[in-house]
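Input chain follows. Return structure tokens only.
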Amino acid sequence: MKSPLVPKSHTEQLKYVISCAVQAPSSHNTQPWKFSIEKNTISVYADLTRNLPTGDPNNRELYISVGTCLQNLISAAQALNCRVKVEYFSLPKSKELVATVEIIFPKTKTKPNKEILDAIWERRSNRTSYLPEKNIPQGVQQKIIKLATDHELKLNLIADRTKITAISKMVKQGMIEFLWKPAFRKELSRWIRHDWSKKGDGLPGYSIGLPGVISLVAPVLVQSTATIPVIALTEAKAVESCPVVGVLTIKKDIPLWWVKTGMTFEAIALHLETRGISTSILTAAVECPSQNIKLRKLVSGVPGLFFRLGYSTGPGISVPRRDGENVLR
């Protein structure tokens, strides 16, 4: 979907950049963010009521999700040729307030960077298989490594087939360990929506391969253990299909760096989108303690986020978004 027309007034442009922010990815499509606007400053909050106590007990994925949203907001403002001043707050002491973004509008009328705005609206997590024989150009790899460095993170790009196979096994085992937990399956089921839902969040049946009428019973089906081996094997094969996988490593395993992890990933994903390259976040190898240890040894650092990247064999699937009025405090 191409980006909507940019409104003319500064007041409406502030709402516009928030509409860009909420196009960001989030775990289970929980969209755990809120915003407030005061003059030309937007405050970005973590909505802790949308947490996942079983799948994300430390709110790690939640803060990563807020980070992706924050980066979208910043990228959108910069695409409007605005200057931004970002102030981060000490988490978790600040409770829900993650950052404030002061937006300084240009004094003269300028042309928006439509490439970036379109990338924000067109980027979708693409869970199809990728083309293993089609490599990512070296120039693109160097660019996204620099983007990570600019955000004070390190990006490990792994192309060695033996290591990719090892990672695929970590993903498979991590998925199995999570899905065998009844509490995790029950929690996941709460975020499954039927295809006609108007809630604007969660995972519609069509997004997990259960479209139409079947989506009405999808919350019940995902609690079954029968499909666990199939799901885990599918995820593993998806990793195997990649020409390269990325692991972002962080300095400290604390909320501020989780936010920066999300920001870094989204900056990378937007750049790759402009180059026709798909991405998809995989959390199992990072969040599952037994597999996290193995991943740490492989990348010699603290894994912040693991993702697939490559040229996809099919389109990414759109999932609903809450509109601006529902995300304002």
